[in-house]
Design a protein that fits this description.
The complex is a heterodimer of chains A (about 325) and B (about 290).
Chain A lengths: L6 H30 L4 H9 L4 H10 L6 H13 L5 E2 L4 E2 H36 L4 H15 L2 H15 L17 H39 L2 H8 L4 H38 L5 H11 L2 H29 L7
Antiparallel strand pairs in A: 1-2
Helix pairs in contact in A: 1-4, 1-12, 5-6, 5-8, 5-10, 5-12, 6-8, 7-8, 7-10, 8-10, 9-10, 10-11, 10-12, 11-12
Chain B lengths: L2 H6 L6 H10 L2 H23 L32 H37 L1 H16 L2 H12 L3 H11 L2 H14 L3 H8 L4 H37 L10 H8 L8 H28 L6
Helix pairs in contact in B: 2-12, 3-4, 3-12, 4-5, 4-7, 4-8, 4-10, 4-12, 6-7, 8-10, 9-10, 10-11, 10-12, 11-12
The chains are: A mainly alpha (about 325), B mainly alpha (about 290).
Chain lengths: ~325, ~290
């Protein structure tokens, strides 16, 4: 098959097609989880109204299609999900999609800051540690990496709160902005940034340690390759070697890990957002569990999965761009 | 092996001895093993060191550590002995860690083995399922499962296993794909050995070592997941758990921060010991990998 399209576009389309069965499986999965959960939409509705007689409940079930065979219900559910219709939240008295939409920005912002921080500092420290392998610098960096890896984000959050909010009073304890601040323009940006410092640090440190360790191993491996020796023999300086020759190849496994771990980072935001009372998807997931708001919870699962698929797609493209050995077609 | 070889060779040390000698070279791994041993001892002796219910009142609320020797690490806001909580918490952490890891590896081995052994459409279907599980943020899935199944410790452990099997499944699949066409497998196949026996008796024993090393990672992650659930107040309320202690300690963080700090340090040290032991085992099993 020959299409008059650039190879990168064909590659992108093929990657998108591969994601379709995964998304369908997730749709079926959320449907099964909804069915497994005690109580259905009508139970929630009736509970919300404070009870109703059996006849009325039966009519409601009919109206919501809950008397249909399971496969019909599944089909209806999937077509609704495909249009991002997640149903009604009986806790927020709004469509779930509206609730999610309000929360999405905060989570994406937290993801972006945390991952950029973890990625840049992780690869920088990893590269430094690899270039001075088995020195004191390397030992300090590697030990720090191990400790960060072992520290749960909620514990780190509390200890940071204790130090920076309670003892020193430098940073706000929670929220995304000062409630009665009404800041505009740059003041607003600075205000939000101050609120994001601790959540970002708490969420990123564990991943920073992952990238650090992988980058260290990766740089050490690439630095031994023949082409690097050739470049050195031709008189390339150490910094040029590092930036032009080693980094690009050493980054590849780290980028793979970044894509693979994105869903775990998103999961980690549940704890961090809840602690710092950030109005994002993560804290919403926690509240939905506590309040048994299954529609919202399924909406979060589906939306998060879509975000993960999109991010994986982007990292794949980035990988293909960085590694010219990959055949695009 | 010819006859002369066996006559000349010095008696070879047994495999565990070789393993231990290699493991011993890594000092960090020894430290990890020491911490791990202490945690196991704490879990075993919890009933002797702190008899009675760790969730009952043991002294005046919010006693600082090292003040009252009947409660050496102090008490929390309900007067519960923190030392007892740490010892019983070790029990829960290890129990959840070990059982959840077994569940995750069992699921992972079955899925990965079928996928890698049969290939074709079986592989396609199982890998899509694996990808779906990897795509859903695992902590969100864990919360959902706990919301559906309830907060009993058995269900929590099972749920942690269910959200952790994808990495071992991929590892087993990769091992099976490289092993399934080796000569010893072909030989067994020609002898008429069934698929089941080929998978479990011939290939699996050869595919297991990397999975066993990776088990230390799954165990560490399981402990972190359990403590995060307990921290959020979604753990089993009938057992002392480090995560839960930190969650409770949050309320008195301002003045009595030790309530959260002590169990926090316990988690950090335990997880640290797992990764050190894991790295040591990895180095000992693959001595060539390290320069």
């Amino acid at each position: 098959m020959r299409l008059p399209l650039p190879p990168i576009v064909i590659y992108a389309l093929r990657r998108l097609l591969q994601a379709v069965p995964v998304i369908i499986l997730i749709m079926i999965g959320t449907f099964l989880l909804l069915k497994l959960a005690p109580g259905d939409t009508v139970d929630a509705l009736v509970g919300d109204m404070g009870g109703a007689d059996a006849d009325f409940i039966a009519r409601l079930r009919q109206e919501y299609g809950l008397d249909q065979p399971v496969y019909v219900q599944l089909w209806v559910y999937m077509t609704k999900l495909a249009t991002f219709d997640f149903g009604w939240s009986f806790v927020y008295e709004q469509p779930v999609a509206t609730v999610l939409w309000d929360r999405l920005g905060t989570t994406l912002l937290l993801m972006a800051t945390s991952l950029s921080l973890a990625f840049t500092i992780g690869i920088a420290l990893g590269a430094i540690a690899a270039r001075r392998a088995y020195s004191l610098t390397d030992n300090v960096i590697s030990t720090l990496g191990l400790v960060f890896y072992a520290t749960p984000s909620f514990f780190l959050s509390l200890m940071m709160m204790l130090l920076f909010s309670v003892k020193l009073g430098w940073l706000p304890v929670g929220g995304i902005k000062t409630i009665a601040g009404f800041y505009t323009g740059w003041d607003h940006v600075v205000d939000v940034a101050r609120h994001l410092v601790m959540p970002t640090a708490a969420l990123s440190l564990i991943y920073l340690s992952f990238y650090l360790r992988l980058m260290r191993a990766s740089v050490m491996e690439v630095a031994d390759l023949d082409y690097v020796r050739t470049a050195r023999a031709k008189g390339a300086s150490e910094s040029r070697l590092m930036i032009h020759h080693i980094m690009r190849n050493a980054l590849l496994p780290v980028i793979t890990l970044l894509g693979l771990q994105f869903s775990t980072v998103l999961g980690g935001s549940v704890v961090v957002e809840t602690i710092f009372t950030l109005p994002g998807l993560g804290s919403l997931a926690y509240q939905s569990v506590v309040q048994r708001d299954m529609n919202t919870l399924m909406g979060i699962i589906f939306l998060c999965s879509i975000i993960v698929v999109v991010v994986n797609f982007l990292t794949d493209l980035l990988y293909a761009r960085l590694d010219s050995r990959i055949e695009l077609t | 092996m010819s006859l002369t070889d066996t006559e000349l060779a010095a008696p070879e040390p047994s495999r565990p001895v070789v393993f231990w000698r290699r493991y011993r070279r890594n000092r960090a791994a020894l430290l990890g093993l020491a911490i791990f041993t202490v945690v196991v001892l704490m879990a075993l002796t919890a009933g002797i060191v702190a008899p009675g219910d760790p969730l009952s009142r043991a002294g005046a609320p919010l006693t600082s550590p090292f003040v009252d020797m009947s409660v050496p690490l102090g008490t929390d806001q309900l007067g519960r002995d923190i030392l007892a909580g740490i010892f019983y918490g070790a029990r829960i952490s290890l129990l959840v860690g070990v059982v959840a890891t077994l569940v995750a590896i069992a699921i992972g081995v079955v899925i990965g083995a079928l996928s890698g052994y049969f290939g074709g459409w079986v592989d396609d279907v199982l890998m899509r399922v694996t990808e779906a599980f990897q795509t859903i943020p695992n902590f969100v899935l864990l919360l959902t499962l706990v919301a559906i199944l309830g907060s009993k410790i058995e269900w929590i452990t099972l749920a942690i296993g269910i959200v952790s099997w994808t990495a071992p499944a991929r590892m087993v699949r990769a091992e099976f794909m490289s092993l399934r066409n080796r000569e010893f497998v072909d030989a067994a196949r020609n002898l008429g050995v069934s698929n089941t026996a080929l998978i479990f008796k011939e290939i699996l024993p050869n595919a297991l070592p990397p999975i066993i090393v990776y088990a230390s990672v799954i165990m560490a992650l399981s402990i972190l997941l359990e403590s995060a659930l307990a921290f959020l107040g979604l753990g089993d309320p009938n057992y002392a758990s480090w995560g839960n202690m930190i969650g409770q300690g949050r309320a008195v963080l301002r003045e009595d921060w030790y309530c959260a700090a002590i169990p926090g340090v316990a988690i950090v040290l335990t997880v640290l010991s797992f990764s050190l032991v894991g790295e040591g085992m990895n180095d000992a099993l693959n001595p060539r990998q390290k320069q």
